[in-house]
Records
---
Amino acid sequence: MNVLVTGANGQLGQALRAASKSFTNHRFVFTDVVSSGDDEVIYLDITLIDAIRTIAKSEKIDVIVNCAAYTNVDKAETDIETAQLLNSDAVHNIATVAKEKDVTLIHISTDFVYNGSKAAPYVETDEKNPVNVYATTKYSGEKQIFASGCKYILFRTAWLFSKYGNNFMKTMIRLTGERDTLNVVYDQVGTPTYAPELANIILKVIDENKLDLVGEYNFTCEGSVSWYDFAVMINYLSGHHCDIRPCNSEEYGSKVKRPSFSVLDKSKVKKTFGVTIPHWFVSLESCMKQL
Ligand SMILES: NC(=O)c1ccc[n+]([C@@H]2O[C@H](COP(=O)([O-])OP(=O)(O)OC[C@H]3O[C@@H](n4cnc5c(N)ncnc54)[C@H](OP(=O)(O)O)[C@@H]3O)[C@@H](O)[C@H]2O)c1
């Protein structure tokens, strides 16, 4: 299959590039707004629909994986237009091309589309009620896909970590090495997700040609944890001795509202695609060993 990947320089994009090396039976066209010198990543701006049309046609694309997004949750609060452009308008562009070419769009959304007030893991059909700008634009992107009529597989994921890009794990490794004490919030609970695990299921769906299994699927690692507990484990596995102190979101002083509980139920994805998913701690330990 010919696979178009957008946002290939991002965290998930890089994980996909690495994992795709084991799938030589498919041809991957990796794209982003910054191309790489070695031509592994070529230029494609997803805000330009004609550019997506052109590449989809010239490369005879069979499936599109959209890893591009505006992911800075704090910055989105003030940079609303750009967040909307990338997370919704550009998604409309990609979905439109997917519909025109009758190819499946594999898209990534977020646990933040839920408001966090449920006391049990969220299932795909639960009400979406985003509480911040980033999440609102991501939910708007989801609706663009549903309205386009294209075939889609939508994975909602959370708290990505890996050796690639910027993420909480890497920030905590650095900060716990630099500081004696650190305050981390304990009143936001979710599930860290190892980006290569998400890359693996995307590649499995493509490789096993399960692209007609259209729908929304939650995908995170197993388990649940607060940011505080996650930081404590990162500190521990780093061999650092930072004194990590739990604080609540109000004490932490973030101006951006985040769901207090965004654990996702993965029954549907496991049953549909026959996957087993590791616990976040097992993935964290294995990731940190590789660093
Ligand atoms: N990271 C998380 O914890 C998390 C949690 C839940 C859901 N998700 C979702 O998972 C997906 C992947 O996230 P990620 O962490 O891998 O994101 P990321 O690291 O921020 O990567 C996004 C990529 O998209 C690129 N991009 C920006 N504008 C573009 C444009 N106009 N055209 C094409 N590419 C453009 C970015 O380039 P620049 O960096 O140069 O702007 C970047 O390389 C996203 O949909 C995100 O919403 C992520």
---
Amino acid sequence: MFANLFINPFIQLFWLLVLVLFAEIFMFFVTRTLFNNLIMALRHKGLPHPIPDEIKQLSEQMGVKLKEFRVAERFDNAYTNGNDVVIGDLLLQGLKKDELLAVIAHEFAHIKENHLPIRFVSIIPLFLIANASFNHLPSLLQSIAALAYLMVVMIPFNWYLEIRADRLASKYVDASHLSSALTVLNGGRDLKEGSESHPPIRTRIQLLAKNQ
Ligand SMILES: [Zn+2]
């Protein structure tokens, strides 16, 4: 009876589907943790926009070279690819001018401290270390275990970089503007919920309150 569970072709197909589903969910979280900015850059490229004077001034104050300021349609977030800052039109509509500058200051902080290249470069040695430490496992399991390990390690690292960017931004803009911008950015979602790439908004607001 028990052996039948694995011999029956329908049940084998069921387990195969479960495995594929698990692999997809797993890879979804891995890519979201490791390549969040890359995913956003592919999905929301945006169109170049003249750089507003206030944003130019802010970039000069922060010592950041901004190549392009782009606005992406039907997008409710902001990101940087290391040279450009892209902001979604949906977010733009919901922000006051000071809040927009606060969001830009956060993105400039990522550029100023090279967070994007640091994240990419750190993935390689971390993956190699993880891969070597799981070398007793069969090769497929070894890669899965190494990716899972990498994901677990990268989450607090991603969060740390976000908190650093908030802290640096609040040296150039009022922290209260960044806090209110984060609330707009969060939409109706739970403030206590973090993601693979960002700490919970409530934590970020609490930390920003200390900078005021
Ligand atoms: Zn950020």
